[in-house]
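Kindly inspect this today.
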Amino acid sequence: MNYLQIVALIVCVFLLQVGYTFHLSVAGAFFLVVMICGIRRLTVPALVFGLIGTVLIFLPIIFSPVNDFSDDALYRSLREGLGFFVIISLKNVRLVIGNRTHLRIKLAIWIITVGLLLITALQAIDIFALHSGKFFMPYSLFPGPIDLEHCWTLASCWSEFGQSRGTSVVIRPAATYAEPSYLGFVVLCLAFANQKVNSGNKIARNCITFIALIIVLLAQTVSGIVSLAIFLFVANWKYLSKNIGFLIFGAVFIIVSVLLLSGRFEALMGGSDESGLIRLVYPLQTVGEVFLQGYIFGIPMDYVPLVLKGAGAQGLHTASDNAFINMFILYGVSGLAVLAILFLNMGFAEIVFLLLCMQFNGVIFVYDKVVMISFALLLYHAHFQIRGASEPAAVGSTLHYPAGTLVDEIPGKIARPAVPAPGTT
């Protein structure tokens, strides 16, 4: 990757949710590029499992609970099937990345992480001291996350949204995104990739981890805090007994989180927090209602409100903000097969990462989620090779390059077993 591509990547991550419509957006363009990369690196197993998973995603349309067929439901399933296919095509790709590209990627992660920290800190100061809302993204740059017109920034829009409905809306930092929870998702992806990109530099890895934790604390996103804490524990559990500093910092982080968000934690434990109800309690009730009514292959998202309304379900209106539980609401028993294909040939840390990604905003097979998850997995599985060296790119494989060839001149190649030269064994 050259510097122009790195700059484009940085800009795309910061402006991922910006767009005129859902399709005509930065995420849509980014997804198109990632999809092309996935097709170029498609293997036969990935093609087979990707097609099987896509068919499973279409089963709710085939066994639709509504006779009147909806084009929107078909398009949604097509998008989700395509997003699933892209993740499957890239999730086990092993890229060989040379020294120069490695340095640029590390620089990009530093710029994105520090940039998000500065913006989040500025917004936090504004919320608690200035109350201006001027440092949030302009509402007009997003494809309408809330149903209001003629408001300026996201902070002022959410404030007006609450006033128009007679409810109190707590404004929290969200950096360049539409909500704090989404910021938590991006930070989780950065922390996941950072575990491999800076695996040879403990100081840099710990610094970025520290910044990531500060960001989610400033944003006061419970899903971000809990997900990041769980992943970091899973990724470092083998070294906990040898890393006293990590244990001390973890304890301090938990204490600060509890003190800062004590009210929300009490509401969550007491069952009165609306976010907790939407992400866990209501979705579990919805799964039970879906299966009780006999929709074993799930219900298309557009039809969930209709089915729940007919059942007289209380507190349930649509699919939830929990993508893991939505697997069973939207795909029924097929959701187990979709998850099995998604987790196939993945390590424990990668599976935990994907499960945690499902706790943000309800779906993962959409443009923005797919590109962030795919890039995080690509970097986590990448082989960062020293210039001019021939090292194992993956277990059981060796790469050989012509004499004098720089690794940076062939970035993005898949690590494959080398073919023995004639006359050798």
